[in-house]
Design goal:
Elements (H helix, E strand, L loop, with lengths): L4 E7 L9 H4 L8 E4 L1 H7 L2 H6 L1 E10 L2 E12 L2 E5 L16 E7 L8 E6 L5 H11 L7 E5 L3 H7 L7 H5 L8 H10 L4
Parallel strand pairs: 3-7
Antiparallel strand pairs: 1-6, 1-8, 2-5, 3-4, 4-5, 6-7
């Protein structure tokens, strides 16, 4: 039997926008992370990783023709859970705003051995898909997060929002090291861990 999958849908808040390089200068928040609720983290992570307070996750991000594969930290920071890491530099993310969506697709109970797929849905560029998410999940959001399990029509519809993974990303390992300039920038600016 195949592993059960989930899609986590996060309605972006102003504080989440700091993860995008296009928003760093205008954002009041310097947080370089996307907030996650405890119930969503509990479904995404294995019991072991949840109890440890998080881990580095292999995240494949594909949006508007850009793609990256890297380790991103998903962990508990004080009382909140956050998905942090390098800033996302694709210029297409300049069109994203608060109330747009980040979608994370993974096996349920991921022990860090399977990648997490990440994409975005914005009102400006994906207007119909954005409206469909709002209409189908408006009663499912809790603290701006909804979790949809495989086997439902909503899951099938949301699955179609994920672009194909480029072959070069699918076969290579995630980037796990930072170059010196990126490391310095993370130390100075990031509180996403």
């Amino acid at each position: 039997m195949a592993d059960k999958e989930i899609i986590i849908v996060r309605s972006l808040a102003e504080s989440d926008l700091g993860i995008f390089s296009a928003h760093r200068l205008s954002s009041a928040s310097k947080q370089r992370a996307i907030a996650m609720t405890t119930p969503a983290a509990k479904q995404l992570l294995s019991e072991r990783l949840f109890d440890l307070g998080g881990t580095e996750m292999d995240v494949i991000c594909v949006y508007a023709g850009s793609s990256t594969r890297e380790l991103r930290h998903l962990g508990k920071v004080t009382k909140n859970w956050r998905l942090g890491g390098h800033k996302i530099t694709t210029s297409a993310c300049a069109f994203l705003d608060s109330k747009d969506f980040v979608l994370l697709r993974s096996v349920k109970g991921n022990d860090g051995d399977r990648p997490v797929l990440m994409t975005f849905v914005g009102r400006q560029r994906e207007r119909l898909l954005h409206a469909g998410i709002v209409a189908s999940l408006e009663n499912s959001f809790r603290n701006s997060v909804a979790v949809v399990a495989s086997g439902s029509e909503t899951f099938d519809a949301l699955s179609a929002a994920f672009p194909d993974i480029p072959a070069e990303l699918a076969i290579r390992s995630p980037v796990c090291g930072y170059d010196d300039s990126a490391r310095l920038e993370l130390l100075v600016e990031s509180n996403g861990r």
